[in-house]
Structure formats: C-alpha cells, structure tokens
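Section 3.1 - Work completed
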Amino acid sequence: MIAAHFPNRPKLTEFLGTQLRSGRLALFLGSGISMKLATGDDGLLMGLPDWPTLMNNLYAIKELPPTIYTKNTNFPQVAEDFRLQHCNGNNGYWLDCVSKALYAGGDLDFSLIRKNGTLEAIGALVRTSLRGAVSEIVTLNFDDVLDRYLAIHGIVVVPTFEEKCWASRGDIVIYHPHGFLPSPGSCFQPASSFVVLDRSSYSKSAPIMNQKMKLVMQSHICLFIGLSGEDERLDKLIWETKDEGNHAYNTSQTGYWGVAFSASYNQAKARKWEERRIYLQKLDDYHTDLPNFLFEICQSAASR
C-alpha cells in the first residue's frame, strides 16, 4: 500500500535525517535542477534549456527553423538526425554544437543563481557537518551548474565522467554519466569526449559507469530530484537495484530504498515509483517546497 511506511512528512524527514547522519544518503539529479535557476533583473527566468528549447537552439546554429522537428517529440532521434546530417562524423564539432545550444544564453550569472533555493539546499546536504553529509551525487545533466555552485562556496568538487579515472581527493565527487560540458568561464576542464543526448548514445552501453551508478544505488537511500523517471538507462538500473537481494534495504527492512518528488502528484505516478520501491513525496511546489523539504532533512539529522 502506498505511503505505508511514511504516514506523514515528519516521519519521512526523520527517516532521511537518520540516513544522512549515517552517511547513507545519495542524490540522483536530473534536468529539473538546471532549469528556472533564477529571475534576472529584467524579470525573465534564467536557466538552462528544456528538451524542445535545446533542440531549437541546436538547429538554430545551422539557421534551420524549429518546424523541422515539431511533428517529432522523440528528441533523442531529433538530436541524432542533426548529428548525422550536419556534423559529418566530426565528434568535436558535435560536442561544440551541443555546448553552444546548452549555453546559448552566454555566461551564467552566479550572483543570481546563488539565490536558487534548490541548489542552496543541495549545498547544505553536501557540506561536512557533525550531523552527516551526502556522500554521493550522480547527475544526468552534462552542464556544470551544480559543480560551479558548490565550488563558489569553497567545496572541493571532483566532476567524474570518463569510464576509467583515477581516484581523487575532494569534498564531493559528482558523477556525470551522460557527459560533461563546462560552461563559459568555468574553472572545470576538460569537457568529456561524449554526451548522452542523441538516440545512438542512449543505446550504447557504458558498463563501468553503469556499475558505479548501480553501486551507489544499492548501498544508499537515494533521493531522485528533478527526474521524471523517463530515462531508460536510469530506469534499467533502478529495476536491477529493486530486484530482491540487490539492495541493502532488504536486510534493514526499510521497505523503500529511494524517494522521488512531484508537485503534480497523482496515484498513477505514485504507483509507478512504488513498483520500483521508491516512495513518491508530494510537494506543494517544486521551487520552494522542495528546498524546504531538503532543509528539513538537515535539521532532523542535526536535532538527533
């Protein structure tokens, strides 16, 4: 039965606060944290593009109208069509085009972005404290908004995106399994040699990075933030983790091994996550109530 283990929000924050104190809390982040980052002085929203806008920006590089894909909402296929038709097998040019489409707005204004409540709350979860800290972050975004935000606050961040990499010292390692494209003016270099954006890149296997993500899932209570649950690669790993015997929760009897969030909650969505043994928490809204919830986890951990 849905919500059987968490009859109310305080009980859930208490449970997650305990996991934070134990170093067992991990974050899986999606594009929801990179869009609508701040409101500019002109009153317009700042942030990175959603799928349709990203494709629009991509085709605008070749001065092509967006109408060429309006009848096709399979955006990975739209991206693959662009790569095959306009990049002539040049991977470097493809990555350059994606970067230009991603950061079409130019330099990121972190004087405004620093006021973003969700990033602020994630930063609070990551900071070393006697009440514990998030030990692992996996982001399916190839932007560096979170990496730069944490670095501005003096947190030593190690972006990790290649299949084979050396162990590194840092306050937090952020895994970028879909690739990594630093923003203009970023202190983080270099970019990855790939991005998971077009259809073929979603189809290709990346066994080492999949193994890393699955290890994080299987040994932590995971918060899924800014994710719709539609990413096939992630969903496959979630199902593999959910299978009996693959997650530590089977021995601790917590029932759920993850929590997702939705401001448009309904029973169908809840059951979808429930099947994967992930609890769906209803939010009043995504941009104020989510940060409040994450801060409540920190406060619960500290109070105990």
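Second construct:
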Amino acid sequence: MSTWFILASGPSMLLQDANAVRGKGTVVAINNTVQLAPWADILYSCDPAWWETYPKLWRNFPGRKVAREGKAKHPEGIEIIPASHDMPLGRNGLANGHSSGYQAINLAYLEGARTIVLLGFDMQHTYGMAHWHGNHGRSANGQPLGNFGCADLARKHFPALADALRREGVRVVNCSRETALTCFERMPLKDALAL
C-alpha cells in the first residue's frame, strides 16, 4: 500500500489511535508499541538489546520483524535491512538517524510509501515520560535499555529527512498528539485518515 502508518512509543501514543489506523494501510509498530497493535504488518526496532529483552512481544508476532544492520547481532528470525551511511535518506538501506522512528520512515520510503502518517513521535519526554509504556528496565544480560536519553540528538536529524522526502514527493503527516518535531505537516488523525 502507498500509505504507511508508523506507531512510535512516545508518551502521547494511545490505543485508540492504533485502532483507528487498523486496515487503512501498512502499519509499523515500533518496539513495545506492538502491544497496542499486535496485528501490525511490521514490528521494527533498531536496538538488538530490545529484541533480546522482549522475546514474548515478538516471537509470536505474525508480521515482519525488521531491524537495521548494525555492529551488534540480532536474534534469529529478524529481517535485517542493510545499513546506509547516506544521510538524510538511505536509498539502498536504512540511514541511522539515532532512532527507530527515523529508520522506520526510511523503510517506508524504500518500500514505496507515498504518504506516511506518524503517531507517537513525541520526540520529547511528554508528561515527564520517555515512552507511553513507562521506562524500559534492564536487558536480558543486565544492561539498562535506553529510555530515549538521545531525544535532542535524534530530533536534529529529522528536518533534513523531511526536506529529502518532500523532494522525493513523499508526504509525511505528523498526527502525534504531542510532539517536538516541527518539520513535518501537522494534522489531526481523523483528517489524515480522509486523505
């Protein structure tokens, strides 16, 4: 489908938003947001430690399980997309952008999306929280998982990505209830569903 919905883990992400996009296009759930959309088409995470820590969330997930190639090894059963070092938009692989959301947008572009709708892209600690599901605990090997301490760094990469996608004719609409991203068109979700 040419419309993709990317459901990130920002604190403003709600179950009702996930339910509203079901069946409306290709849906990507990022990390723990698969709990709100277990029917999503794609589960995406850029962090190998996430896959190791949450096997109950992804092992029985029926859709594609996708990650970007990196230095650390991902568990078996994960589709690995080559890494691209072209910024802001990887055209033969996924550019980093310091967030799974950035990489999922790049994936949608690579797979032919013409419209990309973003939800849960707070890119800030809304309500003093890192994620809608609370903070991650420790990984399977005892290391703490990231709780988006790199929000400032990640946010800096999005304006160039937005410009590159506009030049490619890809419309990106940020329907996140709360967001620090100002580089994408803003719209209530109900209006985006009518596009």
